[in-house]
Write a structure and sequence with these properties.
Helix content: 25-40%
Number of helices: 9
Structural class: alpha/beta
Shape: globular
Number of domains: 1
CATH architecture: 3-Layer(aba) Sandwich
CATH class: Alpha Beta
Largest sheet: 5 strands, mixed
Strand content: 15-25%
Radius of gyration: 18 Å
CATH topology: Uracil-DNA Glycosylase, subunit E
Number of strands: 9
Order of helices and strands: HEEEEEHEHHHEHHEEHH
CATH superfamily: Uracil-DNA glycosylase-like domain
Amino acid sequence: MNATEQLRRDILREYAASVGLPANANYISGAPLRPVVPLDTGSEVFIIGAYPSARFGVMNGERDVPMADNLGPFEPERYYDGERVREQNSAAELEKGYLAPLGIERDRCWVTDLVKVFLFKEGHRDKYARLGGTPPAGYEREKFEELGDKSLRWIEDELKLSKPKLVITLGAEVAGIVTRTSGVAARTRLLGGDVRRLRIGDVEVDVAHLPHPGIVMREAKDAGAATNPWPERNKGFVAVLGTWLRDQGC
């Protein structure tokens, strides 16, 4: 067994307990709620999202109920939710928002999430309550900050295996946690295409903090997007980072 496969197994078996979560959690469907391990394990660009989404379905007339894990971080998935075919958009958003404009093939990337399990927002918990169920204790969206901090040791382990030329974090929350920066305004100021040195545990890396592609692309589609600065700002971020990558021969 190679080191990457061993790390995947370690995450699957040990992650929940290592961050203080019950290990044998389940969705209301009965499907196990487990850590979502990295599938793309390239060695050039290391991409860190926040936490995985889930597969949603219809149960007793209740729509958009979290039912099962995604297959992997930012994976393209299509599935039937009980009423319609749904598509997980995160892979396309990552590709269109960053990989294609930056000229990066996905197989050159290590793609992971900081927190490795799905977290239930208040609306998800309300759906479970109406169905007579309760999400597993500790798996709440409000605990992202705490869980993210406890998850840095796993990111460090992944970085030691990947040895990337560049780390890209997605979203202000992830940027704030990896840099130990608090406050919404301060974290937002971290976002940009500029590359800086960062130490995560014993590993020192070049890192760029970018907005989450889902937010940028969703806002670009909204009717009020013309008044929202993020899509236009992000074009500048991508241009700056693209120049850095070309200068590095990436």
